[in-house]
Amino acid sequence: MSAGRLRIALAKGRLWDAAIARFTRAGMAPLSDKGRKLLVPSEDPGIEFLEIKPGDVPIYVESGAADLGITGTDVLREANPDVLEPLELDFGQCRLAVAAPAGAAYPALPGGITPRLATKYPRLAREHFAAQGRAVEIIEVGGSVEVAPLLGLSHWIVDLVDTGNTLKANGLVEHETILLVRATLIANRASQKLKLDRHLEVMRRLEGTA
Predict the structure, then answer these.
(1) Which residues pair with 67 in a beta bridge?
(2) Based on the domain organization, do 35 and 20 belong to the same domain?
(3) What would the pLDDT profile of 22-58 be if each residue is shown by its tens digit?
């Protein structure tokens, strides 16, 4: 856990720009360009930022390597870390959904075939289908999930959907929503006890710029 400054882990990728815009409006803008350094100071001398992969944000916060972090609820529900979630934020909204090629059989395949399902979210996908009593074979992939049915790797996919344009471009149709997703501020449990006033100040400033 950082001794002096509050260290805030931010997820690279789709949440980065909106998170930086929010911190900038709150008077906590980073002082150097994105990507130049891993640890970036803020215009608020009591804060520094750490830019890491989305899946690593809860790991760093849970371990105490970062005091706070911003990541999506998709990452949180998949990883199930032991962290606090004191503040939901009003950006990063999308959904985790099941999709299949247009015209493909759904919600079951003919002949009792067990569907193969490609996803970056094996835990959430498995829990969703198990709750419905539907058997699926989970194939965990780390890259572009949308191409999996086109290449014969899977019958269906589970992935994040925003506008749906990427699904359409790959001939896929959305069938079910598993989880509504948004950006969330998370906190290390010990840090929030030890630095409660600082945590509350950051949350107040973030809420005040919504």
Answers:
(1) none
(2) yes
(3) 999 999 988 875 555 678 889 999 999 999 999 999 9
- Name the residue range of residue 129's domain: 94-181
User: pLDDT per residue over 107-138, tens digit each?
Assistant: 999 999 999 999 999 999 999 999 999 999 99
Secondary structure of residue 30 in the 3-state scheme: strand
Instruction: Determine, yes or no, domain membership for 41.
Output: yes
Measured CA angle at 166 (ends 154, 80), to 5 deg: 65
Write the CB contacts of 111 (distance below 8 Å, at least 6 apart in sequence). Answer: none
Q: How many domains does the chain have?
A: 2
Residue 123 lies in a domain: yes
> How many CB atoms are closer than 10 A to CB 163?
8
Give the pLDDT confidence score for residue 33 in this predicted structure. 56
Let me know if residue 81 belongs to a domain.
yes
Mind listing the pLDDT tens digit for each residue in 72-110? 999 999 999 999 999 999 999 999 999 999 999 999 999
Residue 115 shares a structural domain with residue 86 = no
What number of other Cβ atoms are within 10 A of residue 183's Cβ?
21
**Helices and strands counted in the chain (H then E):** 7, 11
